[in-house]
Amino acid sequence: MPRLSESHDALLQTGENVHSHAKRAWDGFSDFALRDNVLEVAVGLILAAAFTKVVSSFISDILLPPVSLLPFINRNLDEKFAVLRHGSSYRRIHGYNTLKQALDDGAVVMAYGAFLSKVFNFIGIAIALFVIARVYGWASNDSVIKHTVKCKYCKKRISEKAQRCVNCTSWQDGREN
User: pTM here?
Assistant: First the structure.
């Protein structure tokens, strides 16, 4: 049977091992999570999520209601749908008034209005980000939008300022000819 002092020493050694492993794990995590580029990406993602919500609200709450007043739409764009297969209580004369009514009846529908709304959201976000990138480039003289050209040899896109292609390493000014 081990003595009390040997058990005490083994317990202390185990505690020191656990402490050193925990410290190494924490140091590794903090080295990863607190690097500059990881924090920049995290802040960028949070700002992008908030920006997306603002632009989506602008599109769905301000831009699409006037669009839905057009005579060929005659209702909210999100409610436009086509019935692909009728449900059990479908009446040919009246049809379905809303998308929810068709889905509750078990009909198979193609909700193209919701898709068009999402496409408008995407286009609105893309235009807004493009404008922000242009304004930033104008204000800071550091362009976010990098113009590219095709390499003469491998036909891949490279920076227009590049002297050599990053893909095939050929010179772009014709030195190899």
Answer: 0.58
